[in-house]
Amino acid sequence: MIFDYFKIAFNNLMRRKLRAWLTVIGIFIGIMAVVGLVSLSQGMEDAILTEFKKLGTDRIIISPGGAQFGPVSSFITPTKFTEEDYDVVKKIRGIEISVRVYSETAYITHKKETKQQLVWGFPTDSESLEFYKSQSQFDIGEGRMLRSSDRYKCMIGWEVANEFFDDDVKIGNTILINGRPFEVVGIHEKTGGLASSDDVIRIPLDTARDIFGEGEEINAIFIKVREGFDVDTVAENTKRKLRKFRDVKEGEEDFSVQTSKQIIAAFEAIFGVVQVVLVGLALISLLVGGIGIMNTMYTSVVERTREIGIMKSVGARNSSIMLIFLFESGLLGTVGGGIGVALGLAISKGAEIVALQYGIDSLKAYMGWPLILGGLLFAFIVGAAAGTLPAIQASKLSPVDALRK
Amino acid sequence: MNQKKRTALTLIGIFIGITAVVALMSLGLGLKYEMDRQFSLMGTDKVFVAPGTSVGFSPTTVKLTQDDITAIRSIGEVDWASPMIYKISQVEFGGEINYGFVIGIDDTDAPYEVLMESFGVEYEGGRGVEGDREMNIPFRYYTADFFDKAVNVGDKIKIEGKKFRAVGSVSEIGNPSDDSQVYISMSAAQDIFGVGEDEIDYVYLKVEEGVEPSRVAEKIKKELRKTRDVEEGEEDFVVQTTEEVTETFGTVLLIVTIVLAGIASISLLVGGVNIANTMYTAVMERTNEIGIMKAIGARNRDIFLIFLIESGILGAIGGLIGITAGIGMGKLVTIGAAAGGWSLIKSVFPYWLIGGAFLFSFVVGALAGTLPARQAAKMKPVDALRYE
To answer: pLDDT band at residue B342, thresholds of 50, 70 and 90?
Structure first.
């Protein structure tokens, strides 16, 4: 039964091939644009999210100041954290491990060359060291990790070792940090990506305090939440305890507590807006394509007035007439959709390949089934919806008037 | 009746596309004009120096030092130089606490009011900062947007717990963040933030009359490369003239506008396809009429032109409606943005945009109608007359 409708619709469309094709072109251009854009934007978002997730979804970052720039917030605010803040935080339930750091920009000297770079003081107690072993940012390429007994030793990132200075820095070399000699005992693996350790210089926390003379100051606390505990709850608890300790009101905190989820959500929100804007614009062309279908169907109804009259006089019901026209417009939409989806994905995949040639590896094409099926379904709906009014008009024709034309 | 419906639908296709393109372009151009206006307030004889690798704000961990400042001031062609520092700090007014940017400006070389031009503002009331416990307040302070109560010149505000008196207020910049930043003296900033003199975030400077700013920028780069011990191409600082900054911004804005308008114009392409479709139908329906015209002497070229111009007019009318709607949309977005604190988003409608859009819609229509018109022109009168 349904198959009959398809056959009828197809044959009718074939009678006016040129018109049908032009209408299909209108739809496929729109679908191509929408699918292509969704594919690229989703692909990019997924690629970047994967990078983010490598950092772990159970993390919380606490930094001083009302800004939310993560661990470097301390550089644009005068608010400070001290060991006392850390003592409050580390006791909170649900925390597997908390690492406090102190970082400051210092003058690094290597073989007569001096440059400014950020130096991070990390705790080197055995618990923290165990933790670092599980963090990919701490992977050692050459040499070894800092030990609890180390004082004036440092670990450096791949870029610091190989690109920062004219001469490469090797294991065993001594570099000066603010004039004090430090032996390089470890060089990190090259990481790249968002949480890259390539340009870090790490020294023991106590040593950092010595050479920068900042007593008990810390400027960021990193937390890993224990399995089984809800990250948001732990974050809320932390905020509450810190608020009490620092004597600030809710909403007026002079510190920020951010979960990795919040950071990801903020990022997704921005990406979402961009997607909506781009896809929204592309949808305009689909709208115009739909109008094209409507136009074609109206013309079709007018041309076949007589034919409709005959169909009705031999017993076709109104609903059958309407279905015939709906199928026709739906078919137009779907064919346009099929071509559009295929071309759209081809273009986005092509863009991915071209971008790779230029060294850009974050432009990826998303080609999942939801997009393909969604695109086809959407095209069909646009087609059917566009053809509704003409179809209704056709079904309402009175046979007597129709036959007279 | 059906004919009218068809024409209307075809017009809608073009009108939607033109509306989107005109609205987008007017907003993009408007933004550029507004930024150009703000930068021209400064004058083209200014140069900006900042640590880090991009001129825009980013919490860099590298700073400029006194040696850098001395080196800059030592260059003959530099008229005056003003170091600045900025931090996000706690501000309190009327028992209410909030957080915002506080900028410390060193006015040893030039008057405070002149230095404020680097932010694209003028003084609405009061005067520039003179003492170490004085401050200038931004737009959102005196419009009661930042604190619940409006802050006026003469009021006292606590920054990091220290009392400051507002001695002047400045005009609106156009975005919520910049319109919430306060200005104090450099020494006050160093005091309350506890920073040394080697932690400069920014330098705003003016070159001597008649000197080419880009030349001075190059000299500054050379000097700073020496004081900071970096090689050319590996600088950990940025030096840009006002011209270079507006250029960079202009280029970025241009690319974004073109991409967005480009996507919107895909709908124009589809609209053109619709026009072609309609014209083919029209040609078919008027086959008889074409036959008669040819029979009484119309040449092929005449038929061609008739249909071509018809489709061009279809495009043009759609374009006209679209231009009107596009202007309306652009103005609506501007009003909405201003209500949300983003008054730097403006829309402009230069005559070339309007004229261009009109011409473009005519051309799209005409192009779309080319093939159908040719088909009409090629019809054989004999067959045409026979058509029922």
So the answer is: confident
> What is the distance between the alpha carbons of residues A146 and A197, in angstroms, rounded to a whole number?
15
Calpha distance A93→A229 (Å, rounded)? 9
Return d(Cα B386, Cα A275) in angstroms, integer.
55
Q: Which two tokens mark B316?
A: 């043009």
Cβ neighbors of A4 (< 8 A, separation 6 or more) are: none
Q: Are B122 and B37 in contact (CB under 8 A)?
A: no
CA triplet B172, B113, B69: central angle to 5 degrees? 110
Q: Is residue B227 pLDDT above 80, yes or no? A: yes
Please check the confidence at residue B54 and state whether its pLDDT lies above 60: no
Res. B323: pLDDT tops 90: yes
ipTM over 0.90: no
As a 3-state breakdown, chain B gives helix, strand, coil percent values, each rounded to 5, of: 55, 20, 25
How do residues A97-106 score in pLDDT, each as one tens digit? 888 888 888 8
pLDDT reported for residue B36: 86
C-alpha span between A133 and B298 (Å, rounded): 89
Indicate if the pLDDT at residue B133 is higher than 90.
Answer: yes
Its pTM stands at 0.81
Residues 6+ apart with CB under 8 A from A195: A51, A54, A55, A137
A residues 61-120 near B, CB within 8 Å?
Answer: 65-67, 69, 72-73, 75-79, 103, 105, 113-118
Q: Does A196 contact chain B (CB < 8 Å)?
A: no
Distance in angstroms (rounded) separating the CA atoms of residues B5 and B1? 6
In chain B, which residue's Cα lies nearest the Cα of A36? Answer: B263
Please state the domain extents for chain B: 2-37+247-386, 63-235
The answer to whether B50 and B236 are in contact (CB under 8 A) is no
> How far apart are the C-alpha atoms of B94 and B72, rounded to whole Å?
42
pLDDT of res. A335:
93
Collect all residues with Cβ–Cβ distance below 8 Å to A135 and sequence separation of at least 6.
none
In 3D space, the residue among A196, A192, A225, A257 whose CA is nearest the CA of residue A57 turns out to be A225
Whether chain B has a CB inside 8 Å of the CB on A290: the answer is: no
